[in-house]
Amino acid sequence: MIEDSNTSRLPRGWALFNLDDIVADGRDSIKRGPFGSTIKKAYFVPSGYKVYEQQNVIYDDFTLGNYYIDAKKFEELRGFELKSGDFVISCSGTIGRAAIVPINIQRGVINQALLKLTLNKALVDSKYFYYLFTSEVMQNRINANTRGTAITNIASVKALKSIGFPIAPLNEQKLVVAKIEELLSFLGAGVESLRKVKTLLKRYRQAVLKYAFEGKLTEEWRKTHKDQIEPAQKLLEQIEQERRKNATTKHKEPPPIDTAGLSKIPDDWVWTSIDALFDVGSGGTPSRKKPEYWNGDIPWVTSGEVAFSEIKDTKEYITQEGLENSSAKLYPSGTVLLALYGEGKTRGQVAILRLPATTNQAIACILCSSSPIPPEYVFWWLCYRYYETRSIGEGANQPNMYLHHVRRMPIPLAPLMEQRVIVERIKHDLSKVDKMEDTIEQSFQRSEKLRQSILKRAFEGKLVSQDPTDEPANRLLARIKEVKTKHENRTNDVVAEEKKGLMRYVK
Predict the structure, then answer these.
(1) Domain 230-414 adopts which CATH fold?
(2) pTM, whole model, 2 decimals?
(3) I want to staple 159 with a disulfide (CB 3.0 to 4.6 A). Which of 145, 232, 304, 360 is the partner?
(4) Which DSSP helix (H) or strand (E) runs through 69?
(5) Mind listing the pLDDT tens digit for each residue in 98-126?
(6) 1-167 is a CATH 3.30.300.30 domain
(7) How close are the terminal C-alpha atoms of the chain, in Å?
(8) Mind spelling out the 3-state secondary structure of 10-61?
(9) Strand pairing class (114-117; 87-90)
């Protein structure tokens, strides 16, 4: 139990407990996942016992994740097994997220990004602790005990143990949970409606792009401008001719695109590939061991910054010396970027450079600036293809795309005049979606503030009436410890008597 300046402000019968006070007996009641080579990717198998990761907590979905270990490795890691009813915490990256492990969870172990707690149910209600842990006050205390800059980590289990958790009497905990859930149910209904609208907007966004690249968005425009439209095949031939003329090495004609399974397009359009239209390159990372390569005036883009956006500035800059002594290249404004790596959402995301910049090696750079084709046309096409792009890759554990995958990607080429109309109409229609999504996001933020207001009142003892007959939390803890001590003493006495009897028998 913790005694500090906050103790005097607690409601009557409440107490500040640390993790050691509120977990069940046993050395595995507080356990962070194994580090280093204990659970490296070399041990992963196609199926077996699951490896639970940070995403299982962030998305509150214990079906996520594709990593497994075999029975032999599982037996070695049994102390890290995640069981139904455990309390699991994300302690790396998106820290402080928590979940109660559901019933019928698939057997498996946690990795180093997770911490599991087995709570003492006689002292702490699991849902009470969940709401307490995810409250803003507690999250601020947790964030105060972190380290790291790029990826923040909970400093240690010891640091987390130093935090005091305000624990109400057990009966009051159950009342608090019931009241919280009653209030949050109304709030949850509104949030669920917002989520449904957000899903519909996402579908509408995809429908706009689908119609655009099937020629349906500009169907009427084509009818009224048919005499002015130059077929896309002629544009393609002009681009190929220009690229052959400007090529510094012998230009290799790309193989014809396989149109099987591709959507039907208008007669004056043509299916082609990215490498038939543009040069595609990549970047590099100057040595981090050379400080003279960094903090210069040349923008340097990482794959994390490629996020369906226009890039007008970057988080990091390199020097001219760093550019000349690495595989990084300076790409012009208008280059379309495609993220190649990442098991999360990053792989397949797209951006447009709005300034000359270099990139790291995890990005494919499509040089649209040397072509009459608007870079926005390519950008929106790749946005539309995001999920198909993510299905491309090589490698067993974490599939990656490579430049040859990007070069062979199909693209429907519309006549040049129509491309410009398509870009403008997409921009017009999706700007309305952007505004609606902004409004929804603001509503989500207001909902979260209201949720935190409810939790704040709950853990100040202001949400439910207190019962003077409830056993105070500190007295309950003392009684639990007393029972435990008596049980241990009785067990020790029995063992001692058995030893005496054995010795008499031996004599």
Answers:
(1) Adenine-n6-DNA-methyltransferase TaqI; Chain A, domain 2 (3.90.220)
(2) 0.72
(3) 145
(4) strand 68-69
(5) 999 998 899 999 988 899 999 999 999 99
(6) no
(7) 48
(8) CCCCCEEECHHHHECCCCCCEEECCCHHHHCHHHCECCCEEEECHHHHHCCC
(9) antiparallel
